[in-house]
Amino acid sequence: MEEIKNSTWKPISLEHKLAFSVDCVIFAYDETSLKVLLIKCNMPQFKGQWSLMGDLVSVQEDIEDAAKRVMGKYTSYAHYSLEQVYTFGSVNRHPLGRVISTAYYTLFKFGEESLRQIDSDHQWFEVKDVKGLAFDHDLILEECINKIRKSLRQSPIGFSFLPEKFTLSHLQNLYEVVLDIQLDKRNFRRKLKKLDLLIDTGETQREVSHRPAKLYQFNFKKYRQKHLSGIHFEI
Amino acid sequence: MEEIKNSTWKPISLEHKLAFSVDCVIFAYDETSLKVLLIKCNMPQFKGQWSLMGDLVSVQEDIEDAAKRVMGKYTSYAHYSLEQVYTFGSVNRHPLGRVISTAYYTLFKFGEESLRQIDSDHQWFEVKDVKGLAFDHDLILEECINKIRKSLRQSPIGFSFLPEKFTLSHLQNLYEVVLDIQLDKRNFRRKLKKLDLLIDTGETQREVSHRPAKLYQFNFKKYRQKHLSGIHFEI
DNA sequence: TAAAGATATTGTATTTTTGACACTTATAAA
DNA sequence: TTTATAAGTGTCAAAAATACAATATCTTTA
After folding, report:
1. DSSP notation for B70-109
2. Are B15 and A94 within 8 A, CB to CB?
């Protein structure tokens, strides 16, 4: 391997070679709660505990590619959002040695094709019930939840949770569940109308035993235009 | 060194040992512009270019401690804010090998003791004039500027730029310079009064050749209380 | 086929917040 | 005492946020 030198131009020592990983928080939303996918930790130090999905990053791999690779075990990640959240670098965060880790999260689309087969070592949990994860993963999850809540209000990531066409009630429910708040139906709809970022598809729901709702699509193109002109988004 | 195993319990290979650095963006504000401290890059690949301050993180060092160590060359960092911004992990971002780097920024207090002696290899630049930095530092700086602007509006980081006691005009000027906007004096003051986070010290400016302004302090304690109760801050 | 059940859709009145705008005041210097 | 300089202050109109309830449309069931 080629030699790396530090800023004072001395050859890099072993002191400066360490392991680097990505930890991926896979969120999903099922109309009643925000869920996170966890895996059973097989390290003796964390026997019986669950952890986030993660893996070491190889020297020839971009960290974002590593995150996509980890996500890719569970879904066709290309369709989903992927956000870097924070990098955790305490010396003792990993019991087997120095591992710095960057956390990413992604959102699973509701109503589309489901996960690739997951074995009994994997399980979905409601985020509000999660506690006692291995490593510093409680902290990582907490930061990711904070970030997703902030982003949900200030960017259009929520639409990644929903199918391409959705009703206004679906959208409102998503906000209520993820943010854990109650919203007024009329005020919510007025706000979205003023944002002017939804396309009325002209279609309505099928096979529901009540008045069918109109289906909308998010207008990503118009959003990007507004975003580039510095127009603020807030729900 | 102890052996690290990856998630499939095979011994870790050299493929998973790499170098990790921190890059620090040191901002300062001098009443007329937002400035950033840069250092001349002494690598032949970037001859004549400037770069951010950074260094490799050693295996026994927390990444935040490494950032403080880098900052500490220039100031008594303990008093200053330190924010992690983003981690840059492209395979080819460093010409001498694989180096993943986490970016931090800090804000220098205006009007307090100045920098430790900096040599001719260091220089302050107005952020709006900076271009053509070494490595991917243009990108890193851009991300830090975006973050600082966002944080300035949504958290009380601006006060880290100011001396403990400041006038409302100082504060307004800070917002105008860093955000590159114009603010109405009366509306700005009304907003701050409603936030109810400033303490009137009872003191006024000394030795100014005009009507002396009142001096205020930021009420960090009250801010923390409000913040914990989920009350939103926005200027 | 009529009634019941379920969810969708819509408007108004009140309060709060924002944005635009100009004069008076306090101090130092001339 | 006059002048220069920045500090400090209030109102009106528009926009946004909040609180609140009746009607419409579809399916299911009696």
Report:
1. HHHTTS-GGGS--EEEEEE--TTSSTTS-EEEEEEEEEPP
2. no
Are A28 and A106 part of one and the same domain? yes
Q: Are residue A107 and residue A178 in the same domain, yes or no?
A: no
Q: What range defines the domain where residue B192 resides? A: 164-228
Residues A143 and A168 occupy one common structural domain: no
Cβ of A8 less than 7 A from strand D? no
Q: Which of B58, B63, B6 lies closest to A102, judged by CA?
A: B63
Residue A27, in any domain of the structure: yes
The count of domains in chain B is 2
ipTM value of the model?
0.93
Distance of alpha carbon A221 from the chain centroid? 22
Residue B26 included in any domain: yes
Per-residue pLDDT of chain A (235 residues; tens, 9 = 90+): 344 444 445 556 777 999 999 999 999 998 999 999 999 999 999 999 999 999 999 999 999 999 999 988 887 666 668 999 999 999 999 998 999 999 999 998 765 555 666 788 999 999 999 999 999 999 999 999 999 999 999 999 999 899 999 999 999 999 999 999 999 999 999 999 999 999 999 999 998 999 999 999 999 999 999 999 988 889 9
Q: Which nucleotide is nearest to A208 (CA to C1')?
A: D27
Residues in CB range of B138: below 8 A, 6 or more apart:
B130, B131, B132
Looking at the complex, does the CB of residue B234 fall below 8 Å from at least one CB of chain A?
A: no
Contacts of A135 in chain B (CB under 8 A): none
Does residue B165 lie within 7 Å of nucleic acid chain D, judged by its CB?
no
Q: Show Cβ contacts of residue B92 under 8 Å, excluding neighbours closer than 6 positions.
A: none
Task: Answer whether residue A2 is part of any domain.
Answer: no
* CATH number of residue A188's parent domain: 1.10.10.10
B39 and B115 belong to one structural domain: yes
- Which residue's alpha carbon is at the shortest distance from the C1' of D27? A209
Per residue in B100-122, pLDDT (tens digit) is: 999 999 988 765 555 666 788 99
Query: Does B96 contact A54 at a Cβ distance shorter than 8 Å?
Result: no
Closest CA to A148 of A97, A114, A104, A188: A104
> Same domain for B26 and B112?
yes
Please check whether residues A132 and A190 belong to one and the same domain: no
Both tokens of B168, joined, read: 């409302």
